Amino acid sequence: MAAEGEVKKLMDLRAYLDILRRRGWIIIVVAVIAALGTYGVSKLQTKIYRATARISAVPARPDWGLGQQAKDLLRNFVNNIKTIDMANQVIAAAQFDMNPYDLLSNVTVSAEPDNFIIRIDADDQDPQVAAKIARTMADIFVNERTAYYNTLDKANRIEVKLVDSQIDAPLYQPKPTTNALAGGVLGALIGLLIILGLEWMSADILATPADVERVLGLPVSGTIPSLAGMNSGGEEKSSKNMNPSGTKTNLVSISDPASAAAEAFRRLRTNLASAGNGAALRTLLVVPAALDGAKASTAANLAVAFARIGKQVILADCDLRHPEQHAIFGLSNSEGISTAVVQPGARLPLQATALPCLRVLTSGPAVEAPADLVGSTGMAGLIARLREESDLVIFDAPPVGMATDAAELASQVDGVLLTVSAGQTKREDAQQAKELLNKVGARLVGVTLVNVPLDAKLRKYLAA
Question: Is the Cα dihedral 257, 263, 267, 272 positive or negative?
């Protein structure tokens, strides 16, 4: 149990790292935009300078009662300093051209009782004005208090004096660098929230090999890029992938063997060759978890990949509802599986292709009940005959969850390759497909992720 828990933690960590690998750029972009934005706004703001004058009000003798009295007086001193009368005195002494209310709006007075300190902060766009306000206000207060306490007994005095002899007015705001750092941190958090939102919206969709392995608990045998008429550089072709009728076949394993997709099918072929654990894989069912538009071309290209290494391959189109293999290879569909099942003694209507080692058994004319035909004893006999005629038979079947045909076939073959479309197949559909195949005793040899975005590094390498 402990080991399983560790494995689960490791898988969860891998999932989080994969999310950061795929979407981490969002955090970086939003953080940079936020940092640059706050920096730019800060540079446009009016500069404000702050001067601070500190006044100490310490009892003349170390007496607890006198000390408490001094702390209470500090609060009163704060109120006495920030008055209209004080503002008028400052304006007169410093010869400022402003009204007392404007002056007081730029002044903050606070007390630090534990340190016996009064703090006067003056803000202004002119650093010299700010410093003059703070210094003048502090001088007036110190002089008034000193004059008053000089009339009292020395033992009961509170010594009031200016702490700082030199009062400067450094830039108080804005602080572009600090604001940019804060903006960057906030932007990173916003970027993280965006990622969480995107992941939440796509949580039900399988997009990466890590998603597939985590949800299905099966190894990913291969990842196939989108077959939308790519050439070796990842660009769309206009003619190479066309059959005589003008239909795009996406048969890249023949039309463009140097393409990224063709290389992906070769890797899939290698992985499947070792999936038998020593036993020969003579019959293979290629079936999608859900309708994805790529299942026929996946089966066709895989058949070509095996035929290119000298294996005698038969590709059988068992999708009797929506057959595609005859269109992909430009073959006739006047006879095929539907005729071969009902005529067990007749010759197999296998059709040759451009590859000597690859023959195709098309679906044949449409029938009323495809599932009954696929599940019949005649179909079992046909599968046995196809095994005798080849090294490998690849069956192209409809989606598991949309028709029972695939489940009928799955129990009669050596292995089943489940295909999942990246960014399209829902987790629920994939899990349901696996459960249905397990119920009929199918042997799942792996999962292939199709329609995967082409890796930029591989695109550059192949285009070179």
Answer: negative
Exposed/middle/buried for residue 96 (C-beta within 10 Å: 0-12, 13-18, 19+): middle
User: Strand pairing partners for 51?
Assistant: 122
Q: Where are the alpha helices (DSSP H) in 238-392?
A: 252-255, 260-273, 295-307, 325-329, 337-342, 370-374, 377-389
Q: Which amino acid is at 370?
A: P
Single pTM value for the model: 0.60
- Same topology for domains 48-173 and 209-463, yes or no? no
Class of domain 48-173: alpha beta
Cβ neighbours of 362 (radius 10 Å): 27
Interatomic CA distance for residues 399 and 261, integer angstroms = 22
Give how far Cα 419 sits from Cα of 78, 185, 341, 445, 455, Å. Answer: 77, 41, 27, 11, 19
Tokens of 429: 């559909």
- For residue range 281-306, list pLDDT tens digits in order: 899 999 998 877 678 899 999 999 99
209-463 maps to which CATH number? 3.40.50.300
Amino acid of residue 270: T
Domain residue spans of the chain? 18-45+175-201, 48-173, 209-463
